[in-house]
Every structure is written in structure tokens, then in C-alpha cells.
Amino acid sequence: MDLQPLYLSAKLAFIATPILMLVVTPLAYFLVYFRFRGRVLLDSLLSLPLVLPPTVLGFYLLFAMGPKSPLGQAWQALFNGPLVFSFAGIVCAAMLHSLPYAAQPLKAAFAKIDARLLESSYVLGVSPVATFFKVVLPNSIGGLAAAAILAFAHTMGEFGVILMVGGSIPGETKVASIAVFELVESLRYQEAWKLSLALLAISYCVLLGVNFINNRERS
Amino acid sequence: MKLEIHINKKLPDFTIDVSVCCEAGKMQIITGPSGSGKTTIMRILAGLEKSDHGLIHFNGRVWEDTANNIFVPPQQREIGYVFQEYSLFPHLTVKENIAFAAKKPEIVEHYIHYFGVEHLAGRVPRQLSGGERQRVALAQALAREPQALLLDEPFSALDYITRMKLRKSLQGLKASVNIPIIHITHDIHEGLQMADSFLPLEKGRISYDWLPDNIRAELPGYPSQICSGRLSPVTEMPKPAKRLISPLSRLFCSFRTCST
Question: Is B134 within 8 Å of B99 (Cβ atoms)?
């Protein structure tokens, strides 16, 4: 069995998840604790990947990151290579597609924190930023872990968006889910079985982890 | 060191309109029935809410002045605030909670000993009883060496014996910390026992009408003060303050009763 697609999926998930967590954590905090005009619009926009067909999202991203787009041109100028059909491109696409999957448990965890704890911190002289690190994050460990695990699992199994933005370049953008699709297309069922089983085991372990965290939180 | 407050804030059912002041080493009790606006006053004082029209001065420094659009956030007010319900950080031990905003480690040790929580230092809040939590909350508020202490019914959920013990600890503290202490309680007897100044509140305004007769009978002889001045006889009810803070009412303390 060719393990390269599986390795590439894991590499993608290990790179995209921490970057996504860095972006989505303050974003989720902002959406939960700050009231501003257009909050619902922004929240709905960020949740779009939950309901949008991955191919549609991928189609838009293909144009947004393509060589004629400002982003694609800036990338080309900076790194001397295209953003689409590259590993960096699928990292960006995977992050965008997994964003709501990470944001939902984080928002739930932040909303669960008693507002009195934040007020208590403020009156003790701690700034809102320091309060975020000293009070909010330590009391949202379960939500953070669940968000990271879900984002990781979702990225591991990413298919439509990756195919649209990255194509299927072996060793570059051909991740496990795309490899399974191609194996089935070429009637190589035995290899497809093995790769699918590996993805199934990883996904099951991830869900087991999330449930374990949730149960621990409840108890 | 003096804390002067003139607040006007419209709530759904009534308007809070009070002037209070409290000097260092004194305890200003604000009492009143549930829903009389006590906690809102405290939250405005702490900077957790804004008043509609208000002026809050502390030791010559302006904390809030709506007329000049000045509002100092709670982080910069250097207050200690003990909430009605427990608000200790659940992820920290007792010692870490007390040290959360402490400037000096020796202060943490001092208050751990003062409130007798040495044996609880390694526990987390969920392992403490109600009385223990409030002792830790008091220690936490004092360990940051506040310039004023605000107590929002901190003993309301405790049993009688525990309340008596904490009341005693607080009385002992009053002189040693030498800062203004504003204490909200709905327990009039508790208020009378602890007060240097006594402010009965009803629907956001100073009112003696709701006090039981036997309590009112105690008041004239009691060394209570409003705004650091002597308490007016019961028959001379304090006039309700104007809704808008006028320049005259800003000087409320100075002109009315602060000349003691």
C-alpha cells in the first residue's frame, strides 16, 4: 500500500490545525464576548463551510487564490510559485473549510464561562487580553481540545475542497481521501480497502477522544 | 482618602439616584430590600457598568464623570470587590487565587494566615465550603492591596455562625487596611452592627420609610452618617437628589455633611 497519501493527509492536518487554532480562538472569543454591528453576518459567513458543498467552496477558492487574483499574485511574488495546486494552497483551503468545525466547540466553551469570572478578573486589575490568557483559556481547555481534534479529523478526511484547489499531484496535494477515490475509480479495491480502513480507524479514534473529553468535562 | 459617588441611572422599574461618600477606615453600609438597586450601585462604582449621569471621585481622582465623558475601566480603579456569589477562579488553587492579582508574595502569605486558610492552600474552589470560599474571596480582594473595598452581600449565602466569624474578621480588618469599605447587605441588623455610615435604600433612593419601626428607633442615637455627616433625625428625611447631576449636587458632600 502506498502510504504517501496518508502521510500527506497527516502532514496537512498537523500543519493546518495549529494555524487554524491560532486564528479561530481569538475569533470565536470575539464573536462570543463582543457585541458589534454585523456580528450575526460575520458569524453566518464563517459558518458557511458547514452547509456549502465543498466543491462550491473549492471553486470560489480556486479563483480567490488563482494566479490572476491579488492573493495569488502576492503569493507568486513572495514565494516564486503558484498558491493553487501547491501544498500551501491546500493548507489554506483546508483551514477555511475546517474553520466552523473548530469555531463551534470553541464558541460553546467560551459562552459557558461564567461572566462573573471575567468581571472578577477585571476588578482585580487584569486587562481583557491578560484575562483571556489567565482565565478564559484555562477554563476552556475541553473546548480547545475538542476544537483541535475536530479540525484535525476534518482536515484528515478533506476531499472536495482539496481536489478543487490542489488537484491530485502525488507527493504534493494527493491526500488519502483523493487517493481512495482514485483507487476505486481504477478498480483497485484491495488498496482502497486498506487506505479507507486506516482513515476509518483514525476518525474513530478522534471521535473517541472528543467524547472522552466531553465526558470528562461533564463529570 | 475619600470615595465620593453621585449616581443617576435609569433601570426598568425605577431610577437610581444616590450620593454616597466614604472615608478611609470607615465602613459605609448600603442596605435595602431586594431589587432596590444596591448591586447596580456597586457595579457602577467598580466600573462594571456605567451610570447615565454620574460623578465618582476617589481621593481626588475621577473614576467616572459622564458630563466630561470620563470613564476609568475597572482594571485601573484599584479596588477590591467581593461578589455576592462565589467568583473564585475554578482552575486555580486557593493560594493561586489569592495570589492572582497580588503585588507582593508576602501579602499573599499574610492574608492566607489572617483568614486561616493555610490548610486549604492547595485545594481548588469546588473543594471548599461556602464560608471558606468567601474567606478566600476576601483574601483575594485584599491581597491586591486595593485603595477601596467593595463588598456585595458577601455573607448572604452563609450560615449564621460563619457569618458572625467573617463579620468579626472584617471588623478587625477595617482599621488595619485603612481604606474606604462599602458594604452592601440586606440584613439590617448586620448592617447596623458593622456600619460607620448607614444608607437605607428603596427603589434606588435613600429612604427610611421601609425600615421597621424598632430599627428606625435605633438610628437617631446610632453614630450613623450619610456622606460622612451625622445622620439626620428620622423626621428630617433626606431630600431626594435631582435626577440630573447638577454642579451643585456634585459638591453634595462638601456642602451637605462632609465637614466632619
Answer: no
Long-range interactions of B229-236: CB distance < 8 A, separation 24+: B229/B256, B229/B257, B229/B258, B229/B259, B229/B260, B230/B257, B230/B260, B231/B198, B234/B208
The answer to whether A162 touches A175, Cβ cutoff 8 Å, is yes
What is the structure's pLDDT at B34? 85
Nearest to A124 among B47, B91, B101 (CB): B101
CA distance B5 to B2: 10
Q: Determine contact: B71 vs chain A, CB below 8 A.
A: no
Question: Under DSSP, is residue A165 helix (H, G, I), strand (E, B) or coil?
Answer: helix
pLDDT at B243 exceeding the cut of 80: no
Residues of B13-43 as b/e, b for ≥16 C-beta within 10 angstroms? eebbbbbbbbbbebbbbbbbeeebbbbbbbb
Q: Nearest CA of chain A to the CA of B107: how many Å?
A: 15
Instruction: Kindly determine whether residue A120 and residue B89, on different chains, have CB atoms separated by under 8 Å.
Output: yes
C-alpha to C-alpha distance for B52 and B30, rounded to whole angstroms? 20
Q: What's this model's pTM, rounded to 2 decimal places?
A: 0.78
Single out the residue of A165, A164, A183 nearest to residue A4, CA to CA: A183
Q: Which residues of B touch A121 (CB under 8 A)?
A: 89, 100
Work out the minimum CA distance from B104 to partner chain A, whole angstroms: 14
Question: Which residue is listed with cell 482502497?
Answer: A192
| Secondary structure (DSSP) of A61-126 | HHHHSSTTSHHHHHHHHHHSS-STTSHHHHHHHHHHHHHHHHHHHHHHHHHHS-HHHHHHHHHTT-
Question: ipTM score here?
Answer: 0.79
Q: B104-162 pLDDT, tens per residue?
A: 889 999 999 988 889 999 999 999 988 888 889 999 999 999 999 999 988 877 788 88
Give Cα separations from A160 to A55, A139, B118, B257 (angstroms): 5, 35, 59, 76
The half-sphere exposure of A37 on its side-chain side, counting CA atoms within 13 A, is 0
- B78 interface with A at CB cutoff 8 Å: yes
Cβ contact B48–A114 (<8 Å) = no
Neighbouring residues of B166: CB distance < 8 A, sequence distance ≥ 6: B131, B134, B135, B138, B154, B155, B158
Whether the Cβ atoms of residue A98 and residue A23 lie closer than 8 Å to each other: no
Around Cβ B259, how many Cβ atoms within 10 Å? 9
Residue B5: φ, ψ to 5°: -130, 130
